[in-house]
Amino acid sequence: MEEKQTEESHERRGRLTTVLALATLISAFGSSFQYGYNVAVVNSPALYMKAFYNATYLGRYGRPMEEKLLTLLWSLSVSMYPLGGFLGTLLFNNIFSIVPAVMMGVSEISKSYEIIIVARFIVGICAGLSSNVVPMYLGELSPKNLRGAIGIVPQLFITIGILSAQVLGIRNILGNSTGWTLMLGLTAIPAVIELLLLPFFPESPRYMLIQRGDEKTARKGLQRLRGWEDVDAELSEMRMEDQSERAESRLSVFALLSNRSLRWQLISIVAMNMGQQLSGVNAIYYYADSIYATAGVKENDIQYVTVGTGAVNVFMTIAAVFIVEATGRRLLLLSGFGICCAACVLLTVALNFQDSMTWMPYISISCVIIYVIGHAIGPSPIPYVVTTEMFRQSARPAAFMVAGSVHWLSNFTVGLVFPFLESGLGSFSFIIFSCICLATLIYIWLVVPETKNQTFLEISQVFAKRNGEAKGTQTMKNISIYLLTFILFPIIVNYLTMGVIVWSWY
């Protein structure tokens, strides 16, 4: 009888309970929503913020700011957020987003654009920390049949945050000379809500059992999350993972980097996270307004078209939540990067011929929308899911630190480089992004396996073969070729391009 009950519990599929749904929504709203909001919040009021920078400089020094200095300060304002995110993945801190939100809110009163740059850096630290912790936390809360769908929820809230910033950025709301500081300061609200509500929800049962050895708390947490009392099968799976890791302690970042048994998992998450950001998603958003203007969209209507693009992003991410468990992770990644690659190539052609062909600007608008659709179904959400699934409990925190560092450093690169890249190369800058999309697609095709409906232990065994533990051994030479070809090359190209452009100025 007992054996039959255990067999039934093995076959029981997880469900979306109220506790699991609320824990997912609150953690994603308080963290991922902020990430998306702060990515887009400076786009709409850019004109007024630059005017504030110039007026402040004029008041201090009695002369207007040079255009090159203004471009540099604006690049810093945009890129300080991802740079802070890069540091936030490496330093455990207790800084809440409330402090930088207040700083940005009072920047105009204090007549200091430096406050905005510093505040963006601090809020980036908070976002960097939470953007790693939340996907890991949700991945460990979820039953394996819902792990992909719930793992996409943080990205869904990022897109909702972007859309919210775009809506608030409409000139009749807050995207004007009097409302932009309030718009920057609103980022404190999600932080306060998460701070007040999240403590009432369970800690990760997997963390409590494997890392803390507290089976009683892990059992209670699982019972609340699953909505039933019999959680022995899931606890048994956690114990098996724990036993397989007994010889290993919790890995540090350095230990992870030097651990040959995790080499391909590590290279894969670096490739996917770098490809996600260096594929040009933020550049598409930066360039969108000028594309719409060239297509003949009236200046006052561009903001509404931008909101429409943000709505498409949200809708397609919602679609990814529902299809990821049916299609799997690998197919969404391959199709997403393929669509983005094709859209960037076609966009480059359209931008270069839109002055000579009256219908070409509409192709440009279509390319932007197609790119957003492609990125929303694969490159944006899936790397978070796969990073959770590729590593066992002892290596997962360090893996998220590495993945997050790469993610934010790449984001910082695009934010800092793109204004110069656009100035020097114009529309041809999207060819670089298409090459990065293609390189990432090839890597995923060759290396990344499907992880749908597999336990963390089963996934690690798949990679054990590639890492040479089960059969054969990959040489360091082959690993280095993959590393240089698919990971380092794109970021080196970006930095060299920026260097050439800056050098040409002088």
TrEMBL record:
Highest taxon listed in the record's lineage: Eukaryota
Subcellular location field: Cell membrane, Sarcolemma; Cell membrane
GO MF entries: D-glucose transmembrane transporter activity; fructose transmembrane transporter activity
This protein's record includes keyword ATP-binding: no
Listed InterPro entries: GLUT (IPR045263), MFS_dom (IPR020846), MFS_sugar_transport-like (IPR005828), MFS_trans_sf (IPR036259), Sugar/inositol_transpt (IPR003663), Sugar_transporter_CS (IPR005829)
Membrane topology recorded in Swiss-Prot or TrEMBL: Multi-pass membrane protein
Biological processes per GO annotation: D-glucose import; dehydroascorbic acid transport; fructose import across plasma membrane
Alphabetical UniProt keywords: Cell membrane, Membrane, Sugar transport, Transmembrane, Transmembrane helix, Transport
GO cellular component terms, A-Z: sarcolemma
Ranges where the Major facilitator superfamily (MFS) profile domain occurs: 1-452
Chemical reaction(s) catalysed: D-fructose(out) = D-fructose(in)
Family that this chain belongs to: Belongs to the major facilitator superfamily. Sugar transporter (TC 2.A.1.1) family. Glucose transporter subfamily.
Record's protein name: Solute carrier family 2, facilitated glucose transporter member 5
